[in-house]
Amino acid sequence: MSNGLIALTLFLITLVASYAFVAKASPLFEKWGLVDKPGPQRVNPNIVARGLGVAMYLAFLVGIGVSYSLPVVRFPVETERILLMTIGAAIIVAVMLV
Predict the structure, then answer these.
(1) Residue 59: how many CB atoms within 10 A of its CB?
(2) Residues β-bridged to residue 35
(3) Contact 32/98 with Cβ under 8 angstroms?
(4) How far apart are CA 52 and CA 87, in angstroms?
(5) Cα atoms found within 13 Å of the Cα of residue 70, Cβ hemisphere only
(6) Tell me, what DSSP letter sits at residue 84?
(7) Could you report the per-residue pLDDT of 24-75, keeping only the tens digit for each?
(8) Read out DSSP for 9-62?
(9) 96: left (phi > 0), else alpha (psi -120 to 50), else beta?
(10) What's the rounded Cα separation, in Å, for the pair 81 and 77?
(11) Is the pTM of this model over 0.70?
């Protein structure tokens, strides 16, 4: 596989995963009452589910997982950097939920 085809494959898989996770999580968050309701100090004109960053993070993890199943050439320290980036993103998602 060429690098361009690998990148396109990863993009499309992550895009589909993101769409699927957000579509499934949005009604769930609305059911749990985790929504941002319109008001005088809000910019959203409609009710918007909060916490959908979790769904985006899961799609990000899917993309990383799929990248390890494809023939991607990696530097020796790249796996360590990806792990640290994943941990950092998990911390951001956790803080966002609080």
Answers:
(1) 20
(2) 49
(3) no
(4) 18
(5) 19
(6) H
(7) 998 998 898 888 888 888 787 888 888 888 999 999 999 999 999 999 888 8
(8) HHHHHHHHHHHHHHHHHHHHHHHTT-EE---TT-S-SS-EES-THHHHHHHHHH
(9) alpha
(10) 6
(11) yes
